[in-house]
Amino acid sequence: MYLVRPVDFGDLPALERMAKEAGIGMTNFPANRERLNDKIASSRRSLQTDVVQPGDESYLFVLIDTTTDEIVGTCGMEAMVGIETPFYSYRIDEVVHASPQLQIHNRISALFLCHDYSGTSRLMSLIVDKAHQNREALSLLSRSRLLFLARHPERFTKRLFVELRGESDRNGYSPFWDALGKHFFTMDFKKADYLSGVSNKHFIADLMPRYPIYVPTLPESAQEVIGVLHEESEKSTDVLLAEGFAFRGYVDIFDAGPTLEARTENLTTISQQRMGKALIQPNPLKGELHLISAGHLEDFRVTIAAAEPQAAGLAIDKKTQEQLSISSGSRIQWVAL
């Protein structure tokens, strides 16, 4: 079985391991011990803070393989980006160039630097060990964040987005960065990606080109990867697409990876989740698999198990009860896998 819970300081070694194994391109989860420790501290502080509207809070969760008690995944959320510095993206749009005299009318694709997502909640840092990249683990970890949001809507905006990893290789080569970013930052993609994850992002505003980038002027190798997803992110992206996230024409300024967004009320997990009492059954159940959560803020827990919805609540077995540390009649939240 798997269990998702909020991160704690004792999880730091596991987070370091996963950050190193994730490699280049996971900008918001750098392989830097001090930065990861700050993320843990920020998550714990956010969970202990009374919130009436979203601010600079962030939340980090870990996925545990309960058969071994090992941490095998992590994911996070930010309540609102762009508070201290704008959150930059490229918006893909078209520019019209026309000459009535020559009867020429061209629509040319261009990249516009913008901060349209500033003031919006973000999903981030979803990493799962390769041995556990199955449907149950990926769905549980990714959707657990949405169950947390459904339980605490005041902590997030009504609009959500997630930046997906773009094309780059294990050596740190990004065709898009090589064609564009490196000419303004005078550094390779690996270094820029790392600095963006461990420092403030003022340097992005200082160095990024302010004018539209005409896509046809870029090398073909760069054009081909705009909005293209890294192959290692395909499985986790399938979960997001099934939820209702969609591409709206925004890409990352470093590797041109696609950005997905959605309105919270339109997401499957949030619209279909239910709340009620835990009805403990003495024997294992053979019902449909459900994501089941319990607990408030620091005590928040989510697991995946067979369960049977009933008029009075959700029937779960004793093993699930133990995983969630609840008693019969406890208030729980659930949604079908």
Quick overview of this protein structure:
The protein has 337 residues and is α+β, with helices and mostly antiparallel strands. The chain contains eleven helices and 16 strands. Helix 3 (135-151) links the parallel strand 6 and strand 7 (159-163).
Please provide a written account of the structure:
- The chain has 337 residues and is of the alpha+beta class.
- The protein has eleven helices and 16 strands.
- Strands 8-5-4-9-10-7-6-3-2-1-13-12-16-11-15-14 form a 16-stranded mixed β-sheet, with helices on both faces.
- A hairpin with a 6-residue loop joins strand 9 (246-251) and strand 10.
- The mean pLDDT is 91.
Cα separation of the termini:
14 Å
Low-confidence stretches: none
Mean pLDDT: 91
What is the number of beta strands?
16
Overall geometric form = elongated
How many DSSP helices?
Answer: 11
Main-sheet strand order equals 8-5-4-9-10-7-6-3-2-1-13-12-16-11-15-14
Q: Which range does the strand content fall in? A: 25-35%
The helix/strand order is EHHEEEEEHEHHHHEHHEEHEEEEEHE
Biggest sheet: strands, sense, closure? Answer: 16 strands, mixed
Q: Please identify the structural class as seen in this structure.
A: alpha+beta
Portion in helices: 25-40%
Helix/strand layout:
Blueprint: E1 2-6, H1 12-22, H2 33-47, E2 58-65, E3 70-78, E4 89-99, E5 104-114, E6 121-128, H3 135-151, E7 159-163, H4 175-179, H5 181-185, H6 189-198, H7 202-207, E8 213-214, H8 220-223, H9 234-243, E9 246-251, E10 258-263, H10 268-272, E11 274-281, E12 289-294, E13 301-306, E14 308-310, E15 313-317, H11 318-324, E16 331-336
Parallel strand pairs: 6-7, 11-15
Antiparallel strand pairs: 1-2, 1-13, 2-3, 3-6, 4-5, 4-9, 5-8, 7-10, 9-10, 11-16, 12-13, 12-16, 14-15
Helix pairs in contact: 3-9
